[in-house]
Amino acid sequence: YPWQHAPETQLSKFNLTEIEAMLGSYTKVLFVRDPFQRLISTFMQGMGSSPSFSSFVQDVLDSRQHNVPVAWKPLVGLCQPCLIQYDYVVMFGFLRQELGHLLRRAGLPVDSHLPKFTDTQVWWTYSWLSEQMFSELSLQQKQQLSHFYRWDLAAFPFSGSLLSD
Fold first, then answer.
1. Which UniProt key words apply to this protein (predicted)?
2. pTM higher than 0.85 for the full model?
């Protein structure tokens, strides 16, 4: 359906037959990241107006009943992995390896034009930062975050996620 497709066209604008045909003709890739690390990244980028991480998390928890911003909305709600059969799920922390594999599988050249990914080099920093910021939260906030992201934690193998404990 290339004549109907424009970059800004949302999938919901098509009927079910067209959606199934389009999804069947695309290679579908989903990029995922531990929800707690997404929260830290959002906070560090100043996307919340809270002065502390704990108050930012409280804002996130308070917003879960309303219009949840994409920056911290659970991935299951954004990407519908139960409805869309993704061909690849690429996890933060393995981008360079998985992107090279994905390009080879798609028949595209894998060469020096790949950007330099730093996700594996900064993994230890995220681990340390996650533990520090997690320790700022109350037990109730930790439990509420685990509940808020329960479907993401069930759908994707975020081994070592602080929210899955």
1. Carbohydrate metabolism, Glycoprotein, Golgi apparatus, Membrane, Signal-anchor, Transferase, Transmembrane, Transmembrane helix
2. no
For the segment 24-57, what is each residue's pLDDT rounded down to a tens digit?
888 888 889 899 989 998 998 887 778 899 999 9
Residue 59 burial (C-beta neighbours within 10 Å; 0-12, 13-18, 19+) = middle
Residue range 110-119, pLDDT digits in tens: 765 666 666 5
Write 155-161 long-range contacts (CB < 8 A, 24+): 155/75, 155/76, 155/81, 155/82, 156/32, 156/75, 156/81, 156/89, 156/91, 157/91, 158/34, 158/35, 158/91, 160/127, 161/34, 161/35, 161/36
Alpha helices by DSSP H, listed for the chain, are 16-25, 35-44, 53-63, 75-79, 95-105, 123-135, 139-148, 150-155
At 52, phi and psi to the nearest 5? Answer: -130, 160
Residue type, 120: T
